[in-house]
Amino acid sequence: LSAALIRRPILAQSLTAAVLFGVGDIIAQQAIEQQGKNHDVMRTARLTFYGGALFGPALTKWYQLLNRIKFPSPTKAVVYRVWLDQAILTPAAVAFFFGTMSALEGKGISGAVEPTTDLQAYEPTLIRNWAVFIPTQVINFALVPHHLRFVVVSVVSLFWNTYLSAVNARSERQLEFVDSKVEGTPPLPPA
Description:
globular
């Protein structure tokens, strides 16, 4: 794995992200939501696609950029890399995730914009992301060789992806509940 990460970082990290996003959704659907035989295979496919085709390549390039920036001391390097990662990338990445999932669910441009402006999903997700990834990234940037940083984030991301999948599904059910009340059809209770 280490050799593949050095020789072909985008391919290795994209495949890793695809698998971990897909597995995270499977865990969310089976262990948290207890879907059983009602597993939403298309949802797993969307998350797998997102991880491999969008998140993996973007994060690979992001880490390459952060690694190229030179800092006057190792301590400043850690502080500034974590700040850049969490203050610049993370807010955009969380919005991009919700928007992309809506677009992949066939909701069009307006549907893709709505979850990124819905603070009930976006804001708590962003805050929880910081609680998980600021400590992770401090350790990652301070102790882990640059070509293995994606692996560290990927392992933590397995649990984070499970959380994201569950939050995205819960937001979707809440929107369906609100829409059904507006249209006058019998509502599905939010989970």
